Amino acid sequence: MASFLWILCFFCYFFVFASNGAAAYRRVFRFPESQETSSIASNQYRTAYHFQPPKNWMNDPNGPMYYNGIYHLFYQYNPNSAVWGNITWGHSISTDLINWTPQDPAIHPSKSFDINGCWSGSATIRRGSEPAILYTGIDAENRQVQNVAIPKNLSDPFLREWSTPDYNPLMEPVDGLDPSQFRDPMTAWHGSDGHWRVAVGAQIAGNGTAVLYKSSDFVHWVRAASPLHTSKGSGMWECPDFYPVPSKGRQGLDTSENSKDVKRVLKMSLSETQSDHYMLGKYDIEKDIFVPDETVDDYRVWLRYDYGKFYASKTFFDEEKKRRISWAWLNESDTEADALLKGWAGIQAAPRTIWLDSNGRQLVQWPVKELESLRRNGAHLQNTELKTGGLFEIKGVKASQADVEVDFELPSLERAEPLDPSWLMDPPKLCREEDASVQGGLGPFGLLILASHNLEEHTAVFFRVYKAHNGYMVLLCSDQRRSSLRPEVDKPAYGSFVDMNIEKEGRISLRTLIDHSVVESFAGGGRTCITARVYPEVLVTGDIHLYAFNNGTETIKIPKLQAWDMAKPWINV
Ligand code: DQQ
């Protein structure tokens, strides 16, 4: 067991206490002033167990599917450069979602209906055995049109070659559709009337919408009178996704499933904010529309898969293991010049199993079980205490490539500070103003990740507990503002509340996947997720540390902490 290092002089050495003039007990400790340094683009920022192509630019995950024992992941790919452009469909295959073998690009600009780019789309497995991909082509007139691609040879187990029939395009931007705002067809679903349905993201008069089409043969598509759903003022909906989740349990369902006990998720990627949001509701099969449980036209209060960097996500049904899995693009936060120096840009989030919370209010996500096969020796602690100002190093684990699971137990909620209701609208602001250095009652407590020995660089992932008028609220923050000494890197602070009853549950769990330039955090068993991209210099110098800390006045218990090194799988080598 790594010893519980009470670095009592921690505050004397690293932090200087000073009154901030707020509540009497509230004090601020300061991290060392950062000495900003100029640009470096290191290969240490390349991830070990997150999906990346061998080189060049990647953005959205496309057409993920499980077919005849093989997982396929396609992705938006520039074969020529580390910046966006020349978009084709990269392709990799796997039998375990962890190790990936690269294939030649599956779809590339070749005909008048996609000559200027093969943009995002989805796979549908028709009649259980015939895969088809619907994707957006940028045609010779630079219009966004929807096309189909089908495998050239169904007996090829890896589905390496795809053809784009000459009868494309299937759907065109006519009758009021803007040719520059009409893209990203979702996985199609089959109705009991024998017709296929698919929706395509669009923007009409500033409103985000999913335009619905129907077809009996997957070739001739007719636009339905009403869209699947529209929301005022949300801007262009990119990469919409629409799928069923059972009201109870974690099992995934085929996209066409629509029984009574099933809820529907409508996810949209908002191009203005580059964030993925979703609504829960029902699919009205008579009217062919999505009816949300709550209709709120302010997207700022819509639920999110992830409150950090996480975009253009797409789910698929894993027939073999009966689960629904999501992929998402994690863009870089360093500069285009860095991308060119590194020779690559863009990674995928760890694949996550996704299901409806037992209270029916939100989705829950958890890294796929297979990821645990990469866990190697590490640190295991039990029944440890974190007193006020406590900081201890989690030793015995590779701090740049780890999987950490920790439970924080709160012996008493008495010191929770009152919640100002205005904070509910802007948790990231709260994370900035009451960051890890600001002493509170119950928290901040959590992890300091990818930290230098003197904490000049670190990413703080932490909780605070507040007392609201009707109970307690748990805030999760992922603060990157001190993640790197490099000034040119984007370093926001992210935050969100965790939908949990801390009085009843008594403890808060945190799992964090650390993989060089990515920090993916799952709080409350996956009820709130925040992903960050970080570029610390310490990754280059190699002196990297991982700490647990408590800067609240209440002692926090750690009944269990487990941290593992993560092995490097074969990803596109
Ligand atoms: N990326 C694709 C589009 C999609 C956008 C182009 C979302 O199809 O709308 O690379 O990141």
Percentage of residues assigned to helices:
under 10%
Query: What's the number of domains?
Result: 2
Largest sheet: 7 strands, mixed
Q: Provide the CATH topology of the largest domain.
A: Tachylectin-2, Chain A
Q: Helix segment count? A: 5
Structural class: mainly beta
Notable traits:
573 residues, mainly beta, Jelly Rolls, Tachylectin-2, Chain A, 2 domains, seven-stranded mixed beta sheet, six-stranded antiparallel beta sheet, 5 helices, 40 strands, binds 2,5-dideoxy-2,5-imino-D-mannitol
Describe the overall structure.
Helices cover 5% and strands 45% of the residues. It is mainly beta and 573 residues long. A hairpin with a 2-residue loop joins strand 13 (196-204) and strand 14. The chain is globular. The protein starts with 9 loop residues before the first helix and ends in a 7-residue tail after the last strand. The protein binds 2,5-dideoxy-2,5-imino-D-mannitol. 2,5-dideoxy-2,5-imino-D-mannitol binds at residues 59-60, 76, 87, 119-120, 136, 183-184, 238-239, 312.
